[in-house]
Each structure stands twice: as structure tokens, then as C-alpha cells.
Amino acid sequence: MLSRTSAARASRPCSHGLLRPIASQPPRAGLQQLRRGAASFVPTQQRRSAITQKGFPSNPAVRASLSADAKSSNANRAPGTRYASTTPPAETNANAERKDAIYDLIDQINENEMQMVELMDDLDLLDDHAEALGIDRPELDHAFSQTIGHRDAQTLEERVRAARQQFGDTLPEDYLNETEIELYTQLYGEPIIEQEHTELQIEDEKDLNTLYREDADGEWQEVEVEESALEDEVPVVYDMEMGPIEDETAAMQRTREIAEQLGGDVMLEQFEEDTIHDDAPRLHPRTVEGKFATDPSTIFLPKDTVTGPISIILSDYSNKHISEVARRTFGGSRLPHSTYTPLPRAQSPQIPIPLSATQRHMTEMEANAYIAALYPGLYASTLSVLTEVRKRLGPEWIRGLMSREDGPHFLDASAGGAGVLAWREVLRAEWDLMVPDHPEGSPYPVGKSTVVTGSESLQLRASAMLENTSFLPRLPDYVHVREKPTLNDSRAPPKRKQYDVIIAPHSLLGLEEEYMRKEHVQNLWNLLNPNGGVLILLEKGHQKGFEAVAGAREMLLKRHIASPGSTHYENLTESPHEDTHIQKETGMIVAPCTNHGKCPMYHMDGHAKGRKDFCHFEQRYIRPQFMQRIVGAKDRNHEDVRFSYVAVQRGVDLRETESIVQGPEATEAAFAGYEDLDGMPAEEAQVDESSPASQDGTSSDAQNFHSLSLPRIVYPPIKRRGHIIFDSCTPAGNIERWTVPRSFSRRAYKDARKARWGDLWALGAKTRIHRNLRLGDKFGEGRRERMERRAATREELNEAEQEEPGEEETGSPSWPELAVPPRKKGQTIPSWKKNADKKSLRQATKQYSSSNFGSEELS
After folding, report:
1. Structural domains of the chain, with CATH
2. Omega of the bond prior to 816 within 30 degrees of 0, cis?
């Protein structure tokens, strides 16, 4: 996903007092103050855990040293107290003060070392300069305690208990001093002192290198062996270019011996060729260019602009009340009538979202349910589509808008402000690429944003989260307003508001009549900037949502967007005295289609019953905590929002400016593949000579490459062993099934394994066939009609079975007497023969019944 907005913009001016001041968090748990008298440094448990998470004790030696210092000198000490020293009380007060001063100095040294560790960790110098911390030196507390006495009685007891825990009943010689031995004896009894046997170990090591020989008397006599002069030299084990010599297994050794007997060699190079080296790119550049995904692929809603302000707004209301209203409004606990699209087996009705940003009346709790249940899905789907549009139009488009004096003009027609948040996230990410060294939290050009909110309660909440934003109660009507002077009014037409980007999610399904949808799309098209404005229409990812978007796409292509061979359209509503042939405008479809013909999945206007195939896509996002409470989820915190969309641009046609080729020629070129376009290694593309990729007829089209000339994967790829299957919508306007096997190309096969639903595929395929689509029919039967028909058929069969016994009593033909062969006395029939006889009986009965039933029907 695009990177998150800086934290400096988290606090924004609050409108109408909705956002309460956020209480400042307590300071981070750090080091405790120096103690009175002892001034010992004691890191708190929170600080140690924070340092551990921060990662500076990655060096094991540093971690062990720090933990040992903390345990030996500072563990479990009550604050503000000083225990009595273990030295005899006969010492003078002056000596006691000197000892305290020494231990104070040790504490100061430990504190300085901890500060050095933190500074070196912040500068990433800890691993390289760990020796500067004095890790290998003995503990200062232990070193001085042997001469001036321990710090206190607790420190003495801890050292004795640590020795007991480490060595058990035995103690190494001179490990504890006399005072420590005395306390050890009082606690555990007399210890067993273990002496070191260094001399014996040296003799044993010497004996290991001695050679003996038995003489004539049967005694062993030492033999003198001269050491080789080359023994100290390091032998050359292997050649650096050839690599180390690997030990052969028994099977490989036997294989090599057989190969030598037959006069051949063992071929191992083929296994090395199948591997892709680490220095090779992970994905082909054209594969990366055609990806339909955010970075990362799962969207994390930013806390400072989305989830944080919403949580503060909802904190003034009861969570239970919000959940009840949301579930009652959106159809249940899973919110099936929200932006979430249930699976087909759920048989959920395909109705528009009950709450709309443009509706005039909305209660306070309904507004809370809107921002809590709809904002996350609207933000994720809008951000996904805007990211795809930015990829297809290139960085020049969005940077040109940002470089203008007044910035880009954005209209959120039906998302209630969620579209503005997603659009500003795209602008911020682009600004980070344009000015990578800008200070954190510095402003970036956001332009002017407008949001349509019909109700005051929703406008109040949206204004609390958005800065520099205008709010409209409804869209202006530019359909029924004259565009030029007329006979009745010769004045110039009034100026119209124009926007560079318009996003209108979930605004078509709420309009039941087809003519109302066309007027709405026409009005949005008139609001677009004629010099490159982009319109995005988005609906839920089910059959009716797709049909609404596809109908709007067909209307725009038929009336407004000009294409080669279709530059005018006939307007039958004009008067006979005016020209009915109206010239179309320059424009293009940006996404998801890479063709400007009729949609292959939309073959008729209106709703088609029994439709199974339709174009839609998916985006995953992490549900915020307030949405988790509404849904009642305990384990899974992500959700996949499915949607159908279309993005069009007015006034600019890249097919003309950049010579983009679409149609059958582009399909043939894409089927051959653009793998070698960027100078990829030729040995990586192992293409069969008979495959279309080896033909020269379409290789010349590689020079005119553009991502809008590629087929788009419209269903999840089918990954099989050794090959990948794509269902793609080609630039020719057909749905085809492409197969990419391993034998086609190693690079293409590797990238195909990583391909996802919605990607544009550029590396070609080996085979392709036409995919059969189940598009339904206007007068066909839907799911309900089909279920009713099956139920009626089932009832007729049950009634026929109940009438059969009465017919047999009146005069039905008798069944043949097919008896099982009798078994003789003492005869044992195998189970296979017994089952075979029963099977023959069943088959004969079935055959007789079927023939008898057919004769009755003929009669």
C-alpha cells in the first residue's frame, strides 16, 4: 500500500467540538533516578523490554554482559535503602565512606555504559564496536568485593545462591572467598572443592600423539616420528572458481562408475540450468508494471487520518448502540448490505447500500454507523482503484495536477468523504517520490476537494476529519442546463464547475430506472474537466453491480468517447430540423478494460437472470477495532471487499498521443509475449520452436508496447503442477483461457506463479482457447425460479411413486421371478460369486423395469 501519512498531521482542527483534545501520553518508561546515597543505576523492567524490542542486544555477548551486570549489582533492591556491608563492623566510618564512594563510582560507570549502548544502538554502531563497552572484563562489583567487601548482605547472599545454582554440591577451587564460603556453609553445608587436573589433561593430550610398537619381549616401545615440514601449511582444498568438492553418495558413486565403464559422463549441468540465480530480478519489469495491487497488497487504514478520528467520534456513543444500529441497517452481524459482498452460497439479496451519502435525512446513530461500517470499505476500494489509475496514466498525469497553482480539483460524489481521504493518500505518496528529502510533516499540495453530503449529521462528522474541504448538499444538474446560446436566450451559458477527478462509488444501484442511471452518468461526465478529467464509477462486486457499471460504460462509449470507426452517434431525440448525428468527444477507458468495444460479459441491457460470469475485482484491508466490535469477529481481522468499476478520461486519448494499439493485433502481440523487450537474457526464454512466441510475425509489435495493450486477468489464476491457467479479457474484446506451462518459458512460468487476479499479463502464453461464459438471459430463470422448478419436479415424482401400488393391485404386469441360485448342502460359495449373483439380479430387475416403463408410455 502507499505509505502512511506522517504523524504530524494527526491533530487537526476540530469542527463543532466533535474531536475532544487527546490527552498526552505519559512519558516513555526510562531509567530510574540515581538513588539517594548509593546512586546505583537500576533499569526498569519496561525499559529493558523496550531495549530488547528495539534490537540493540543482537550481539549475544552484549546481551549476556548487560543482563549479568543488572542481576549481580542491582536486582531486587528496595528503592531508597542501603543494606549493611559484609565487612566487619570494626572498620572506621572513614573506611565505610570510602567503600560507599567506590561503589558509587561503579554505579556511575555502569550508567555511562548503558547510555553508550543506547547511543551506539541509535547510530547502528553496536555490533561493530562492541569491544569498546568492556564486555570481556570481569564484573566490577565482584572484583572489588574481594578486597573491600561486598556492597551489602543481600549482594553476598545472591552470589552464594548463584554459585549453588550453577555448580551444585561442588565448587571450583578459589571461586568463593572466605566470607562467601562461611555463608555457603551456613546455608547448604560444607562444599566439595573440585581441584583442576591440568597436568593430567596435558599428559593425556600428549599421549594422544604418541606412537607405540610391541617389541620381541611383548613390551610396548615408543617410536619416534618425524613431523612433516608441510604440516603447518594450509593445503589447497579446492579451486575457488570450481567450488568445493562435495562428498558423493553411494548412489552417485555407483552411477559414476557405470558411466565410466560405458565411456560416458554424468550430466549434472541440466539441474543447474533449471535454477534461477539470486542476482536475477525476482519479477520481469513488464510483470511488475502490470500488477493490480497496492504496496503492500493488504491495505492498513492510517490511524492519524482515518481510524483515529473515527474512534474519537464514536467514543461519545455506546458501542452496543452503534453495533445494533449497524446490524439492523446493513442486514445482520456480517453486514451483508454494506460494502462487503457475501459469497454466492449465502443467497443474499443484491440490493443497494441502505445508507447513501446523498440522502437528505440521517440520524446521529445512522451517521455513526455510516462512518464505522462503510468508511473502511469505501477507503480501501477507492484507494485500490486510484492506485490502478495512477499506474495506467503514469506519473506525468498526477504530477501535472499537483504542479498547478491551485492544485487538483477532486469531487467525492457519493463516498461521504472517504474518497477524499484515499485521494490525499495517493497525493502524499506521490509527493514523497517527487521530493524524497522533504521534512517530515511538511505540507504537500492537496488542491481543492468537494464532498457531497445530504445530511447535516454526516457532514458534521466528515468535516471533523477533512481540512480545506467544501461540502455540497447535492450535485448540480448540468444535464438540463443549456450548453450554448439558444433562440429563446442569447446570453452566454453560465460557468460550470469542473473537476479533475470524480469518484462516485455505489451511486448507480440506488437508481432503479435505466434512464435515471444514464442521466446521473451524463451529469458526472459534464462535471469533468474536458482537458483530462477522470471519472471513476464503482459498485459492489455482484451481478447487478457489474451490470450497472457495464451499462454506464456502454453509454459513455456510445455517446461520448470517440474511437476509430465510431466518431459520431445518432441522437433520435433531437428535432427534425437539427442534425441528429452528433460528434463524440476525445476520451478513453483507463481501467480495467484494455479495449473500447462491447463488453464480452455484457451482451444485453438490463438484468440477466442466471448470470454466473461477471467482471469484478478484490481488495483486502485490515478491519479497525471499532469495525471488529460491530462484526463480532474474534479471530480474523481482515476483509476482502469486492467491487466492479470503470475509469474513463475525458479530453485525452493515449491511443493517439502514444500510439497505443488495441484490438486483434495487440492480442496477437501479447500472446507472443514481451519477455525479451527489456533485454532479458535469451537463455531464460526457452520457447518451443512451434510455439507462437518463436514466430516473427508479431515480434515487431514489441516496440509499441504499452500496458493498455495487454490482456487483464479477470478471475483468480488456476495454478496446476507444471502450468498456470489464466482467464483473461483480451484487447480484442474476448474472454480467452491462456495456458503458461513450464516448457514455454522459465521466466514466464515463474512470474505466472506470482500472478494475481486483476493483473495485466505481458509475457505471453503457449496455448489459448475461447472460454465459454454463463451470462444468463433476460427471460431466463433465476435462482429462485430454478429452485421452484426443481421442487415441483420432485413433488411430481413423489406423487407418482405413491400411485404405483394402487396400479399394481388393479392390473399391473407381474414382475419376473428371478430367484437366487440355491446353495447345495455343505457347499461354500465365495463372497465374490455371491456378490456377482446379486449384482446380476439387480441388473436384470433394472433392465426389466425400464423396458416395461417405456412400453407403458408408448401405449
Report:
1. 96-192 (no CATH), 292-479+496-569+581-655 (3.40.50.150), 661-676+707-778 (no CATH)
2. no
